[in-house]
Sequence to fold (246 residues):
Amino acid sequence: MDENETTGTAPATTTARRPAGEPMVRVEGLHRSYGTGAAAVHALRGVSLSVPRGELVALKGRSGSGKTTLLNLVAGLDTPDRGTVTVDGTDLSTLGDDGLLALRRDRIGFVFQAFGLIPILSAAENVGVPMRLRRTDSREREERVRLLLDLVGLAEHAAQRPGELSGGQQQRVSIARALANRPALLIADEPTGQLDAETGLAVMELLRAVVVAEGVTALVATHDAQLLGLADRVLELDDGQVTAVR
Fold:
């Protein structure tokens, strides 16, 4: 997943949130291959799944199982060869480039393994970036930044830059930034991959708390077995297919 793809500007969306009974994410018959002929890599082979609203759903699977490809397709960062992806009631195939940019800006929050923070900005300024792109009123933006830094336990570190923070603190800033525009869906690709076990568990517990506090749905790719117990359900991918659901 390329974090730079999520920061473009586009007209604001006005799509209403969908009824509670409809899944936040629905994927049907999804296929995605890279390359051609004998050298082709079949990343996804007919994947179908749904992510209920208000749940933290973990994607489990070894490296190369298709987790990141699936997240990229759900986020509209890539296009399937076959199949459909529906997010918050919207079939992504019906959206043009501007619509996909607006979807990622307004309705999806991203948490990256490498944090993706801007080094020259403070923690508070990093959290405020998505709202600046959306041209949110400065007073509302500053209030939201304060609330989110308090939510992730970093209110006292608002003025510090990423290089002055630990890895766990940087990931907490990344989570706060992902929540800036009140997304319906939070996508996290190996968010604890660069953290030690204890810090990684704390970050996953924070994601669990955020789902409740912010009322979002979270789709989290991880290979860390101890983190899976915090998920409402676990989907296992193997060789591009869903092989188990818990």
Summary: Residues 3-17 have pLDDT under 50 and may be disordered. The chain has seven helices and ten strands. The chain has one domain: 24-245.
